[in-house]
Amino acid sequence: MSTVHLIDHPLVQHKLTLMRRKEASTNSFRRMLGELSTLMAYEITRDFPLQDLEIETPMEKMVGKVIDGKKLALVSILRAGNGFLDGMLNVVPGARIGHIGLYRDPETLQPVEYYFKMPDNMGERDVIVVDPMLATGNSAAAAVQQLKNKCQPKSIKFMCLLAAPEGIKTMQAAHPDVDIYTAAVDRQLNDHGYILPGLGDAGDRIFGTK
Protein backbone atom coordinates (compact mmCIF):
# COMPACT_ATOMS: atom_id res chain seq x y z
CA MET A 1 0.00 0.00 0.00
CA SER A 2 1.25 3.47 -0.85
CA THR A 3 2.19 5.93 1.86
CA VAL A 4 0.46 9.25 2.54
CA HIS A 5 3.07 11.87 3.41
CA LEU A 6 1.59 14.78 5.35
CA ILE A 7 3.78 17.85 4.84
CA ASP A 8 3.13 19.65 8.11
CA HIS A 9 5.95 22.19 8.07
CA PRO A 10 4.79 25.35 9.91
CA LEU A 11 5.22 27.55 6.82
CA VAL A 12 3.15 25.13 4.72
CA GLN A 13 0.35 25.06 7.28
CA HIS A 14 0.43 28.85 7.71
CA LYS A 15 0.07 29.52 3.99
CA LEU A 16 -2.59 26.84 3.58
CA THR A 17 -4.74 28.43 6.28
CA LEU A 18 -4.49 31.83 4.59
CA MET A 19 -5.43 30.26 1.24
CA ARG A 20 -8.50 28.56 2.72
CA ARG A 21 -10.09 31.87 3.75
CA LYS A 22 -12.99 32.76 1.49
CA GLU A 23 -11.89 36.41 1.40
CA ALA A 24 -8.46 35.55 -0.05
CA SER A 25 -8.10 37.34 -3.40
CA THR A 26 -7.16 35.60 -6.64
CA ASN A 27 -3.80 37.35 -6.55
CA SER A 28 -2.98 36.31 -2.99
CA PHE A 29 -4.29 32.76 -3.53
CA ARG A 30 -2.13 32.30 -6.62
CA ARG A 31 0.94 33.81 -4.96
CA MET A 32 0.62 31.67 -1.83
CA LEU A 33 0.09 28.52 -3.92
CA GLY A 34 3.36 29.24 -5.70
CA GLU A 35 5.16 29.75 -2.39
CA LEU A 36 3.59 26.66 -0.87
CA SER A 37 4.41 24.46 -3.86
CA THR A 38 8.07 25.50 -3.58
CA LEU A 39 8.09 24.40 0.06
CA MET A 40 6.34 21.12 -0.76
CA ALA A 41 8.77 20.45 -3.59
CA TYR A 42 11.62 20.29 -1.07
CA GLU A 43 9.83 17.47 0.75
CA ILE A 44 8.74 15.44 -2.26
CA THR A 45 12.26 15.51 -3.73
CA ARG A 46 13.90 14.51 -0.43
CA ASP A 47 14.67 10.94 -1.55
CA PHE A 48 15.67 11.69 -5.13
CA PRO A 49 18.94 9.98 -6.07
CA LEU A 50 21.99 12.18 -6.48
CA GLN A 51 24.66 12.02 -9.16
CA ASP A 52 28.30 13.06 -8.95
CA LEU A 53 29.31 16.18 -10.86
CA GLU A 54 32.87 17.41 -11.14
CA ILE A 55 33.07 21.18 -10.72
CA GLU A 56 35.70 23.80 -10.00
CA THR A 57 35.24 26.19 -7.10
CA PRO A 58 37.27 29.44 -6.88
CA MET A 59 39.73 27.37 -4.84
CA GLU A 60 40.00 23.94 -6.47
CA LYS A 61 38.28 21.13 -8.33
CA MET A 62 35.83 18.91 -6.47
CA VAL A 63 33.05 16.38 -7.01
CA GLY A 64 29.63 17.58 -5.85
CA LYS A 65 26.16 16.07 -5.83
CA VAL A 66 23.30 17.10 -8.14
CA ILE A 67 19.81 15.97 -9.07
CA ASP A 68 19.53 15.35 -12.79
CA GLY A 69 16.57 17.61 -13.61
CA LYS A 70 16.44 16.23 -17.15
CA LYS A 71 15.26 12.93 -15.67
CA LEU A 72 12.36 14.52 -13.75
CA ALA A 73 8.97 15.32 -15.24
CA LEU A 74 6.24 17.36 -13.57
CA VAL A 75 2.84 16.34 -14.91
CA SER A 76 0.00 18.80 -14.34
CA ILE A 77 -3.63 17.69 -14.32
CA LEU A 78 -5.27 20.60 -16.12
CA ARG A 79 -6.07 23.19 -15.34
CA ALA A 80 -5.59 23.65 -11.61
CA GLY A 81 -2.38 21.61 -11.53
CA ASN A 82 -0.64 24.42 -13.42
CA GLY A 83 -0.77 26.47 -10.24
CA PHE A 84 1.91 24.21 -8.78
CA LEU A 85 4.41 24.39 -11.64
CA ASP A 86 6.19 27.72 -11.20
CA GLY A 87 6.83 27.12 -7.52
CA MET A 88 8.20 23.64 -8.10
CA LEU A 89 10.40 24.82 -10.96
CA ASN A 90 12.08 27.16 -8.48
CA VAL A 91 13.49 24.00 -6.89
CA VAL A 92 14.00 21.81 -9.99
CA PRO A 93 14.31 24.23 -12.94
CA GLY A 94 15.57 21.49 -15.26
CA ALA A 95 12.41 19.42 -14.94
CA ARG A 96 10.33 18.73 -18.04
CA ILE A 97 6.60 19.46 -18.05
CA GLY A 98 3.69 17.27 -19.16
CA HIS A 99 -0.05 17.96 -19.16
CA ILE A 100 -3.11 15.77 -18.85
CA GLY A 101 -6.50 17.34 -19.50
CA LEU A 102 -9.38 15.79 -17.56
CA TYR A 103 -12.77 17.11 -16.63
CA ARG A 104 -15.19 15.58 -14.18
CA ASP A 105 -18.61 14.59 -15.49
CA PRO A 106 -21.01 16.39 -13.12
CA GLU A 107 -23.46 13.49 -13.11
CA THR A 108 -21.16 10.49 -12.72
CA LEU A 109 -18.18 12.31 -11.13
CA GLN A 110 -16.01 10.20 -13.47
CA PRO A 111 -13.05 11.74 -15.36
CA VAL A 112 -13.12 12.33 -19.10
CA GLU A 113 -9.77 12.88 -20.87
CA TYR A 114 -9.43 15.59 -23.50
CA TYR A 115 -5.66 16.27 -23.63
CA PHE A 116 -2.43 14.33 -23.15
CA LYS A 117 1.03 15.75 -23.95
CA MET A 118 4.30 14.50 -22.44
CA PRO A 119 8.04 15.16 -22.84
CA ASP A 120 10.26 12.70 -24.68
CA ASN A 121 11.87 9.71 -23.01
CA MET A 122 9.24 9.36 -20.28
CA GLY A 123 10.35 5.79 -19.66
CA GLU A 124 13.60 7.18 -18.21
CA ARG A 125 11.95 9.76 -15.97
CA ASP A 126 10.71 10.02 -12.41
CA VAL A 127 7.30 11.71 -12.49
CA ILE A 128 5.50 13.94 -10.02
CA VAL A 129 1.81 14.33 -10.87
CA VAL A 130 0.36 17.55 -9.45
CA ASP A 131 -3.24 18.58 -8.79
CA PRO A 132 -4.30 20.80 -5.87
CA MET A 133 -7.28 18.68 -4.81
CA LEU A 134 -7.50 14.91 -4.30
CA ALA A 135 -11.27 14.74 -3.86
CA THR A 136 -12.97 11.61 -5.24
CA GLY A 137 -9.58 10.50 -6.54
CA ASN A 138 -11.08 9.47 -9.86
CA SER A 139 -9.24 12.06 -11.96
CA ALA A 140 -5.91 11.45 -10.24
CA ALA A 141 -6.25 7.68 -10.60
CA ALA A 142 -7.19 8.05 -14.27
CA ALA A 143 -4.26 10.38 -14.95
CA VAL A 144 -1.78 8.00 -13.33
CA GLN A 145 -3.26 5.06 -15.24
CA GLN A 146 -2.84 6.90 -18.54
CA LEU A 147 0.79 7.64 -17.66
CA LYS A 148 1.40 3.98 -16.93
CA ASN A 149 -0.37 2.84 -20.09
CA LYS A 150 1.25 5.30 -22.49
CA CYS A 151 4.63 6.17 -20.93
CA GLN A 152 5.68 3.64 -18.30
CA PRO A 153 7.84 6.11 -16.32
CA LYS A 154 10.47 4.92 -13.83
CA SER A 155 8.41 6.08 -10.87
CA ILE A 156 5.34 8.18 -10.07
CA LYS A 157 4.48 10.34 -7.07
CA PHE A 158 1.32 12.36 -6.57
CA MET A 159 1.27 15.80 -4.93
CA CYS A 160 -1.79 17.75 -3.86
CA LEU A 161 -2.71 20.62 -1.58
CA LEU A 162 -5.68 18.91 0.07
CA ALA A 163 -6.82 15.29 0.16
CA ALA A 164 -10.10 13.74 1.24
CA PRO A 165 -10.16 10.26 2.81
CA GLU A 166 -12.29 9.07 -0.10
CA GLY A 167 -9.70 10.22 -2.64
CA ILE A 168 -6.85 8.61 -0.74
CA LYS A 169 -8.76 5.33 -0.64
CA THR A 170 -9.41 5.48 -4.39
CA MET A 171 -5.78 6.24 -5.24
CA GLN A 172 -4.37 3.57 -2.94
CA ALA A 173 -6.73 0.96 -4.33
CA ALA A 174 -5.92 1.82 -7.96
CA HIS A 175 -2.20 2.58 -7.56
CA PRO A 176 -0.67 1.10 -4.41
CA ASP A 177 2.78 1.94 -5.82
CA VAL A 178 2.17 5.71 -5.96
CA ASP A 179 2.91 7.66 -2.78
CA ILE A 180 0.72 10.68 -1.99
CA TYR A 181 2.13 13.98 -0.70
CA THR A 182 -0.33 16.50 0.72
CA ALA A 183 -0.45 19.51 3.02
CA ALA A 184 -3.69 18.35 4.70
CA VAL A 185 -6.15 15.47 4.89
CA ASP A 186 -9.59 17.02 5.29
CA ARG A 187 -12.73 15.54 6.79
CA GLN A 188 -14.88 14.34 3.87
CA LEU A 189 -16.55 15.08 0.55
CA ASN A 190 -19.96 16.70 0.18
CA ASP A 191 -22.69 15.40 -2.15
CA HIS A 192 -21.13 17.25 -5.09
CA GLY A 193 -17.67 15.76 -4.59
CA TYR A 194 -16.09 18.86 -3.02
CA ILE A 195 -13.70 18.57 -0.09
CA LEU A 196 -14.90 19.73 3.34
CA PRO A 197 -13.80 22.03 4.92
CA GLY A 198 -11.67 22.45 1.79
CA LEU A 199 -11.04 25.76 0.08
CA GLY A 200 -13.57 25.78 -2.76
CA ASP A 201 -12.73 25.21 -6.42
CA ALA A 202 -8.94 25.55 -6.66
CA GLY A 203 -8.97 26.20 -10.42
CA ASP A 204 -11.48 29.02 -10.13
CA ARG A 205 -9.56 30.58 -7.26
CA ILE A 206 -6.22 30.36 -9.09
CA PHE A 207 -7.50 31.84 -12.35
CA GLY A 208 -10.29 34.11 -11.09
CA THR A 209 -13.07 32.27 -12.91
CA LYS A 210 -16.44 30.87 -11.88
UniProtKB/TrEMBL annotation:
GO biological processes: UMP salvage; uracil salvage
Cofactor(s) required for function per UniProt: Mg(2+)
The keyword Nucleotide-binding is annotated on this UniProt entry: yes
UniProt-listed Enzyme Commission number(s): 2.4.2.9
Record-listed 5-phospho-alpha-D-ribose 1-diphosphate binding positions: 79, 104, 131-139, 201
Cofactor comment text: Binds 1 Mg(2+) ion per subunit. The magnesium is bound as Mg-PRPP.
GO MF entry, a single one: uracil phosphoribosyltransferase activity
Keywords assigned: Allosteric enzyme, Glycosyltransferase, GTP-binding, Magnesium, Nucleotide-binding, Transferase
Keyword Transmembrane helix: no
Top class in the EC scheme: transferase
UniProt GO cellular component terms: cytoplasm
Positions annotated to bind uracil: 195, 200-202
Activity control, per UniProt: Allosterically activated by GTP.
Reactions catalysed according to its record: UMP + diphosphate = 5-phospho-alpha-D-ribose 1-diphosphate + uracil
NCBIfam families (UniProt xref): PRK00129.1, upp
Protein function: Catalyzes the conversion of uracil and 5-phospho-alpha-D-ribose 1-diphosphate (PRPP) to UMP and diphosphate.
Name this protein carries in UniProt: Uracil phosphoribosyltransferase
